[in-house]
Amino acid sequence: MKTEDIKQLLVKFYNGETSREEEARLSAFFRQENLPAELADDRNLFLSLSECGQEPLSGLEGRIDSFIARLAEEESAGERRARKTRLWGRATGIAASLLLVVAIGFWRYSGHEKDTVLADTYQSPEEARKATLQALQLFSQHFSEGMKPVEKANTELKKTQEIIDHTLNKKN
Q: Is the pTM of this model over 0.85?
């Protein structure tokens, strides 16, 4: 067989257009000893393909069909479970919403709205003013005490920044 014919068959082979007879001719050609160097890679491919065997395993088609059928069955079972889960999720959401509405209605009409949340704690505005001033003084005292460590840290930070600036200026 001529090299040009083989090259044309190889193009058909790589495009998936060859028949079994043409593939057998290619395989027989590449089993020859003396081949052009340009076809060495193709020879390696065909020799490795011939080592793999030509016939599929017995019963492979049946096993593939049963595997596909099992996957389809599992998929439909998964869809049924998903539908049930969505249904239960919706039912639970509706039940929770109804329970919340009933609980709010029960709380609202059970007399709790009559209780006042904000009530006066002092009898006169003067007492309220004195209590407010005491609270503000206490806050001010504790705030001042809390600021002392912050001021000390700020002083240390300034000293550190000066040392860094001094060191950088020396290097320049």
A: no
Name the token pair of 13: 């082979």
Our CA angle for 25, 43, 41, nearest 5°, is 140
- Structural domain total, the chain: 3
Token digits of residue 119: 């009530």
118: in domain: no
> Model confidence over 29-73: pLDDT tens digits?
878 878 777 888 888 887 777 666 555 566 778 888 888 888 888
* Cβ neighbours around 158 below 10 Å, total: 10
Q: Do residues 20 and 64 both lie within one domain?
A: no
Q: Tell me the C-alpha distance between 90 and 78, whole Å.
A: 18
- Tokens 């595997």 map to which residue? 67
Question: Which tokens sit at 167?
Answer: 């060191």
**7 close to 22: Cβ distance less than 8 angstroms:** no
Residues 6+ apart with CB under 8 A from 105: none
Q: In the block, which residue shows the tokens 């590449």?
A: 30
Tokens 């969505």 correspond to 86
Tell me which residue range forms the domain holding 163.
125-172
Q: Which amino acid, residue 153?
A: A
* Residues shown for the chain: 172
